[in-house]
Design goal:
Blueprint lengths: L18 H14 L5 H29 L1 H9 L1 H7 L10 E5 L4 E6 L8 H4 L4 H4 L1 H9 L1 H7 L9 E6 L5 E5 L11 H5 L4 H5 L11
Parallel strand pairs: 1-4, 2-3
């Protein structure tokens, strides 16, 4: 599973009637007629996927790492914390936060469609919306996570949280070792979108 946004390239593994193919066909038509610029479209998508959206969630996680009281409140009533911090936007009417621990790893999926906390994480990645991820991560989570680069210890419990139109979930990843004393801004740089979905860990500070 990959999060690729390859415009202008055929997707041989997708049905011609799939939303992805139809969206790309429409985009190609707009570009051909001079009504849209492909580079600007790609740049905008990348910005919302990796900067604007995810950084709101990343800053929330970083604050929770440095403030145990806030972390406890997030786990007890994330809606109250989100409202207090003035975070607004699409699909966060009701949020639940699930914390990873040394013995428990949480993963988020939406088995029915692609419910996702846009205001916290930005645009959902393509793989999150794919039928393959939505079906397989429930049946064989360890295999799916391993394919995405995350190997879990054999005794780690894996909890799957199924998002819906009523409830969206966000994973509070474990704080990486070696970050004691780091300011929130620097910690937030370690928090990736994928770590807040649960298919990855927070980034290694050694590789910063």
């Amino acid at each position: 599973m990959h999060d690729d946004h390859g415009h202008g390239h055929p997707h041989h593994d997708l049905d011609a009637s799939s939303p992805e193919i139809r969206v790309e066909a429409l985009e190609d038509l707009l570009v051909e007629k001079g009504l849209a610029d492909r580079a600007r479209i790609d740049a905008t998508i990348q910005r919302y996927e990796h900067d604007i959206g995810p950084m709101i969630g990343a800053e929330l996680v970083a604050h929770a790492w440095t403030d145990p009281a806030l972390a406890s409140r997030l786990l007890a009533d994330a809606d109250d914390v989100v409202a207090e911090l003035g975070i607004r936007g699409a699909e966060i009417q009701h949020i639940e936060v699930k914390a990873n621990t040394p013995g428990v790893h949480n993963v988020v999926v939406c088995t029915l469609c692609s419910c996702y906390p846009w205001a916290l994480l930005g645009l959902p990645p393509n793989w999150y919306k794919s039928p393959e991820y939505r079906a397989r991560v429930v049946r064989e989570p360890r295999a799916v996570l391993a394919e995405m680069g995350l190997e879990l210890e054999p005794d780690t419990e894996v909890h799957i949280w199924d998002s819906s139109s009523e409830t969206r979930f966000l994973v509070l990843p474990e704080r990486p070792a070696g970050t004691d004393g780091w300011p929130v801004e620097r910690l937030a740089e370690l928090v990736t979108r994928d770590s807040m979905i649960g298919v990855a860990r927070a980034a290694d500070p050694a590789g910063e």
